[in-house]
Amino acid sequence: MGTLVGKVALVTGASRGVGKGIALGLGEQGATVYVTGRSEAGGAAPTPLPGTVQETAAEVTEQGGRGIAIACDHRDDEQTRRAVRQVVEEAGRLDVLVNNVWGGYEYFWDGTPFWEEAGFWTQPLERWDAAFQAGVRAHYVTTAAAAPAMVAAGSGLIVNVSSEGAEKTDTGVAYGAAKAATDHMIACMAHELRDHGVTAVSVYPGLVRTESVLRAAEFMDLTVSESPLFVGRAVAALAADPDVARHTGQVVRTSSLAEEYHFSDPVPR
Asked: What span is annotated as the signal peptide, if there is one (predicted)?
């Protein structure tokens, strides 16, 4: 029996990539996992990449959990609040929130040659706006909507999917600033939530073999990389740890969590 049977999770931005991997990792352990995203079966895809929220939900169920899809554009605050409200009303609880949705990657598929945006002064301001609205703001609004249920229960885990880009200077100004903002936000949230029994952490994956990354595999060194499901197992391990509060307010890396919790990457490179 999985370690998360009876637990309820919400993973945002889970049509594909890291979000999907996290949803599947939680599903492996028997959790009920609500997944959000803009890509719907039968709808117009916002990107040329494969994957829908319905497909992710179905795969969560195949893994042993229970997957439930919610179509949601997290750039719209009311859609975000409505999604959280649906989870709490239907499930009666929310144990794990994973803020994974993000923006600012549009140049990967909008036809812009990457060398034309080699400096921040060459980029349209929309790149900054997307990273902060679909990323930082969406994380804040989703967490603010979810926190009351966790505080009332006296327990819960909030995870912001972040990146070492928050600590580097060569990953782009908008991206680096937005990731640093989401890390500091989680630290401040952890401070306010600590006395209510709710843990909040930022998780840094390594280079993840998402659909987008694999499209550019010929230009990248994937020798040291992770599958999306490896990230999912890291989050599931945190969610199952009764002493997870020791990590609150911190940045934790998937590689370190694998050593601590003894899980491995199930998908070979």
From this structure: none
Q: Reduced to 3 states, what is the DSSP secondary structure of residue 212? A: helix
Q: Which domains does the chain have, with CATH numbers?
A: 8-261 (3.40.50.720)
Query: Cα(first)–Cα(last) distance of the chain, in Å?
Result: 28
Q: Rounded CA gap, 167 and 149, in Å?
A: 32
On whether the CB atoms of residues 190 and 200 are closer than 8 A, the answer is: yes
The sign one gets for the Cα dihedral 98, 101, 102, 108 is positive
C-beta separation of 100 from 161 below 8 A: yes
Catalytic residue among 34, 140, 175, 204: 175
Q: Is 83 helix (H, G, I), strand (E, B) or coil?
A: helix
Q: Residues 34, 37, 42, 48: what is their CA dihedral angle, to the nearest 10 degrees?
A: -140
- What are the tens digits of pLDDT across the range 6-64? 999 999 999 999 999 999 999 999 999 999 999 887 666 677 778 899 999 999 999 99
Active-site residue 175, yes or no? yes
Rounded CA Rg of the chain? 17
Assign 249 to helix, strand or coil. coil
- pLDDT tens digits, 168-213: 998 889 999 999 999 999 999 999 999 999 999 999 999 888 777 7
Q: Residue 261 CB: number of other CB atoms within 10 A? A: 14
Q: What is the pLDDT of residue 223?
A: 78
Residue 251 is inside which H or E element, if any? Answer: strand 251-253
